[in-house]
Amino acid sequence: MDDNTLYLASNIKYLRTTMGKTQQDLAKICNKSNTAISNWEKGIREPDAIDLAKISKFFKVSLDLLFLKDLRFFKNNDDELETLYKKNKDRLSSKDKEHIKFIIEQAKKDNN
User: Fold this and answer.
1) CATH of domain 3-68
2) Do residues 26 and 58 lie in contact, with contact meaning Cβ atoms separated by under 8 Å?
3) Which pLDDT belongs to residue 31?
4) Tens digits of per-residue pLDDT, 17-72?
5) Burial code of 33-69, b = ≥16 C-beta within 10 A, e = fewer?
6) Which of 9, 63, 84, 111 has the most C-beta neighbours closer than 10 Å?
7) CA distances from 3 to 57, 69, 70 (A)
8) How far apart are CA 6 and CA 107, in angstroms?
């Protein structure tokens, strides 16, 4: 099992619980059993491409974020980026400020 699989499993569980959804709720969306959802969340099995698309749509998160970021920590990064920016903005050029603000806004959009 590689890191991406571990992110996928933990992200499915994190998103589901954060949204207050049950395994049964997700099972209905994907037309699967609760056991299948449990296996996805434990990393025992992986959803197929069609189920991944349904999961992405249901949670309103891109597939790359499902696989490539540990979303349990990603949301907190938005606040950390803003705090870091505020503490150091006097040291930045106008162009750097624009770039950093853009990155922060993109991270927020990707997270929502």
Assistant:
1) 1.10.260.40
2) yes
3) 97
4) 988 899 999 999 999 999 999 999 999 999 999 999 999 999 888 888 888 888 77
5) eeebbebbbebeeebeeebbebbbebbebeeebbeeb
6) 9
7) 23, 10, 10
8) 22
